[in-house]
Amino acid sequence: MMEFHLRTARDHALAPAARLQSLSRERGLGSLVIGAAWRALLRAYLAAFHRLTVQGRENLPAPPFVLIANHASHLDALSLSAALRGDAARRAHALAAGDTFFRSPLASAFAAYTVNALPIWRRRTRAGEIVALRERLLEDRLVYILFPEGTRSRNGVMATFQPGIGALVAGTPVPVVPCRLDGAFAAWPTHRRLPRPGRLRLTIGPSLTFDAAPSSREGWEEVARRCEAAVRSLA
Amino acid sequence: MTLAAAFDHPVTVGIVGATAAALAAAGATIGAMTLAGRGSPELRRELWLRLGSWCVLLPLMMGPVLLGREWVIGAVTLLGLACLREFDRATGLFREPLTAALVVLGILAVNFAALDHWYGFFVALWPLTVGVIGVGTIPLDRPAGYVQRTALGLLAYMLFGAGLAHLSFMANDPGYRPILLLLLMTAALSDVAAFTFGKVIGGPKLLPATSPNKSVSGALGALAVTTLLVAGISRSIFAGTALGQPHWLLALGLVIGVAAQAGDLMLSSMKRDIGIKDMGTIIPGHGGVLDRFNSLLLVAPAAFHIIAYFVGFGLGAPTRLITGG
Fold it and tell me: Cβ contacts (< 8 Å) between A14 and chain B: which residues?
């Protein structure tokens, strides 16, 4: 037995502001309490204003896993995180655009303490950052919420998946859980400042694994293709 | 609380005045160094950073003491929680949120007992909280790691809850201000004196594997300074009481001096074992809250029980202010 390891937090040596934007950020008790309160508020909001229904929750495995979906609105990450329960909810990180959600210390604190977001800096993500995310996914048994299109749809139509999802999971036993969220574009399209009431329907599909996929450009693209097909099949 | 009441004891006036003077002198010295171009820019930047941190820290430490008992208890509660946060992130206890939450509850409860001025509950919370932390994670049915997480939780509670809360309980005595200011000043001065004597005299290392920068001369010099300083200042605080005799005042000074250095060495042992330099990063130039306040962890209960044995704390003050009874 003796499972406990005297292991310092990965982000221990970072100054408070740097910690918020770090991919090594680990949650403490305060973050867990704030996150739980946020999820309760979020579920109440999504139930009251969007009548969110979730199908296929039984397809969610035990952590670690990666939750992916089509991306049409800021409601997407909120809906996916609200669908998680228990240990998976506590271990979930939304991978969010750094230039949108981490542009100031206040915005970073909000993103970090509510949806436990980790920043992805579009067009300047370094290979080392993907490696760090991949290692943490396995070692810390995390849950990532990720939108492989890379950005929100401008017209509600799902775009081609980027190979980044493959770089995270190719050659690992970590399951990828495809989801489809309907109604998010109508409720909060990119051109609106605030959401409007409208029904949301989240369908969670059976998970996929890519332990045999080579961790190479070709392997990552193949993973992205299979993930995209899985999400499209949930329509 | 009036200004006159806050400064009703000459020791309070002396310590606050000396602290302000020391900060002004340090600012003037570093300013002169900057104007004359003495020292490297890195050194001057480091000195300004440390001074800036002290200028924030000292009002945060002394302000609540001057403002009143509720402020002291609030500040000690926040200090305990801040220490716990650094401790659990350094040791990995934060990955056991239930144990960490039980320690948080213990810290809140023991400071509530001080706020209520209910000594029976204050004392009862030590074994009761140990029991709660001991059994709290059993329903998880996860025996792996039980000994480690429980031991860390108990150590955290004893140091940052039960230990530090003695400062809170002291505030129930109407004459608490000079005593608390003396303890805060001694804990801070012990570090400075050890560093200065070590640099000036040098000589063999104290415990090189535990803390490579500490020397025997630094430890003994700091002990002499804190013992004499505490004994000298306490003479004015405890004059006319059973503790007011010179040998007891020297004993009080010695115990406080040893406790201050023991707390420092205790934190050094933890840091060496874990393999980190500082417990945190929140105080520029100092490290974490625990790096700054480690000397206070053992000073608080040690000083409390010696003073309580001879004089008592808040014996004439009303008790069970919130719970009644």
Answer: 281
Mean pLDDT of the region A174-182: 98
- Among A26, A29, A87, A91, which would you mutate to test the B interface (most chain B Cβ atoms within 10 Å of its Cβ)? A29
**What totals of helices (H) and strands (E) does chain A contain, helices first?**
10, 7
Query: Taking CB atoms and an 8 Å limit, are A29 and B144 in contact across chains?
Result: no
* pLDDT digits 0-9 by tens, B254-272: 999 999 999 999 999 999 9
CA distance A5 to chain B (A): 7
Average pLDDT over chain B, rounded to an integer = 94
Residue A86: CATH number of its domain: 3.40.1130.10
- Is A6 domain-assigned? no
DSSP for A77-108, written as a single string = HHHHHHH--HHHHHHEEEEEEHHHHSSSHHHH
Q: Is residue A4 part of a domain?
A: no
Task: Tell me the C-alpha distance between A115 and A79, whole Å.
Answer: 11
Q: In what order do the strands lie in the sheet with A201-204?
A: A53-55, A201-204, A176-182, A65-69, A143-146, A92-97, A118-120
Q: Classify residue A10: in a domain, yes or no.
A: no
Q: Does residue B1 have a pLDDT over 70?
A: no
Is the reported ipTM for this assembly greater than 0.90? no
Query: What is the number of domains present in chain A?
Result: 1
Residue range(s) defining the domain that contains residue A139 = 22-233
Residues of B engaging A, defined by a Cβ cutoff of 8 Å: 85, 88-92, 94-97, 100-101, 104, 143-145, 147-149, 273-276, 278, 280-282
- Residue A25 Cα, gap to closest chain B Cα (Å): 11
Cβ–Cβ under 8 Å, residues A148 and A227: yes
Both tokens assigned to B95: 């990955």
Within-domain flag for A101: yes
pLDDT digits (tens, 9 = 90+) for B87-135: 999 999 999 999 999 999 999 999 999 999 999 999 999 999 999 999 9
Is the pLDDT score of B148 beyond 90? yes
Q: What is the pLDDT of residues A4-20, one digit of tens each?
A: 888 999 999 999 899 99
CA dist., res. B146 & res. B138, Å (int): 8
Q: Where residue A2 falls among pLDDT bands split at 50, 70, 90?
A: low
pLDDT of residue A183: 97
In terms of Cβ atoms closer than 10 Å to its own Cβ (0-12, 13-18, 19+), residue A3 is: exposed
SS3 at position A66: strand
Hey, what long-range contacts does A135-142 have (CB within 8 A, 24 or more apart)?
Answer: A136/A10, A136/A23, A136/A24, A137/A64, A137/A66, A137/A168, A137/A169, A137/A172, A137/A174, A138/A64, A138/A172, A138/A174, A140/A26, A140/A64, A140/A91, A141/A63, A141/A64, A141/A91, A142/A63, A142/A64, A142/A91, A142/A92, A142/A93
Q: Which residues contact B320 (CB under 8 A, 6 or more apart)?
A: B116, B117, B118
B117: left (phi over 0), alpha (psi -120 to 50) or beta: left
